[in-house]
Design goal:
Layout: H1 5-11, E1 18-21, E2 25-29, E3 37-43, H2 58-75, E4 81-84, E5 100-104
Antiparallel strand pairs: 1-2, 2-3, 3-5, 4-5
The protein binds guanosine-5'-monophosphate and zinc ion.
Amino acid sequence: MMDCLFCKIVRGEIPAKKVYEDEYALAFEDIQPKAPTHVLIIPKKHIRGLKEAAAEDAELIGRLNLVAAQIGRERGIEDGYRTVLNVGPKSGQSVFHIHLHLLGGRDLSWPPG
Ligand code: 5GP
Ligand code: ZN
């Protein structure tokens, strides 16, 4: 996907503060953090969003969650963090390359707005 912002980050065409990388996934600091820890975890494969994911993406989506748990452990925020997938424009999804938000390091209210 040539025009996709997060694909450009995967290709190194746009800089990002990388937190984690493996063969399948990349994690980097959100440019406008909403909490002391606000990391975005994305698959290297372009998937538009959760509703466009296919059965073959199941393992990849699981991997994103496990990367979030690993970063949560490393950051010492296991007393309370949240993973969020915004799905569709009414949820606030603004980048159409699936990404898991990892938010923590402060009290998190429920329900989210
Ligand atoms: P969404 O609103 O689609 O769920 O989340 C997109 C997130 O990407 C937002 O939290 C936004 O701050 C972040 N973001 C947008 N552009 C960039 C960028 O160029 N670099 C980084 N690191 N984050 C970005
Ligand atoms: Zn993409």
